[in-house]
Design brief:
globular, four-stranded mixed sheet, single chain, five-stranded antiparallel sheet, 2 domains, alpha+beta
Length: 235
């Protein structure tokens, strides 16, 4: 239900639970930022489940994060790790669509992003934006710098969609600083650049999921696509 990079809006009690559970881990300097985040009703971001959270607890709790704008002098990006009861989640949405971030992106990216968004729609592909560009669009604060990437989350449902999406990423990475992940139907995610470079000489890939990080094979990831033949057998 709570996939990594999803946007979560909390109730007032949910924010209070976050403050209570993170009282010892959140720096005092971040308390005001946390209060500001709640008052603005900005979403927190779903992150990987903490290692000390067992399966039973994970059924009732969601691990979240907030990334503050980079410090204008040092460039440091403070991140606040939070936990909240799932019952206090008011709304959950996937990452923003490419169209939704274009106006907030630097001017020299906008035309290429619009063309990419058009191509994504034409191929009926599921792309979302997370990271600095998405946070700038959500909050209006300055997150994007000269060194920022555009983090895209690509969620193909079939192997032809996977191939079409990776081809688009490779094409538009020539004019845009594209980064991000491919999320397979299994919920496992791999960096799209790593997938694009993978071959028989590099049989294992680093994948991320809600529960951790591990190595797996290209074949195992491809097997997560349900084939038409398999679907027919299920009926």
């Amino acid at each position: 239900m709570f996939a990594r990079h999803s946007l979560v809006w909390l109730s007032a009690q949910g924010w209070q639970s976050c403050r209570n559970s993170s009282r010892d881990s959140v720096a005092p300097s971040s308390h005001a930022a946390l209060e500001r985040w709640q008052q603005a009703d900005w979403p927190a971001i779903v992150r990987r489940v903490d290692a000390d959270v067992d399966a039973d607890t994970a059924e009732h709790q969601v691990c979240l994060g907030i990334a503050l704008p980079p410090d204008p002098l040092t460039g440091h990006k403070a991140r606040i790790a939070l936990r909240a009861p799932q019952a206090e989640v008011r709304q959950i949405r996937g990452p923003l669509a490419i169209d939704a971030v274009i106006a907030a992106a630097p001017a020299h990216w906008r035309d290429a992003l619009q063309v990419l968004a058009t191509q994504v729609a034409r191929h009926d592909l599921a792309f979302g934006v997370y990271g600095s560009v998405a946070l700038q669009a959500l909050t209006g604060a300055s997150y994007v710098s000269a060194s920022s990437d555009i983090d895209l989350l690509f969620s193909p449902q079939t192997q032809p969609q996977l191939e079409a999406g990776v081809a688009l990423l490779q094409r538009y990475a020539k004019t845009l600083p594209l980064d991000g992940e491919i999320v397979f139907p299994s919920g496992q995610a791999v960096a799209w650049k790593e997938w694009a470079q993978a071959n028989e000489n590099r049989p294992r890939l680093l994948v991320k999921s809600n529960r951790g990080v591990q190595l797996t094979t290209m074949a195992a990831l491809l097997a997560s696509f349900v084939t038409p033949e398999h679907t027919a057998c299920m009926h």
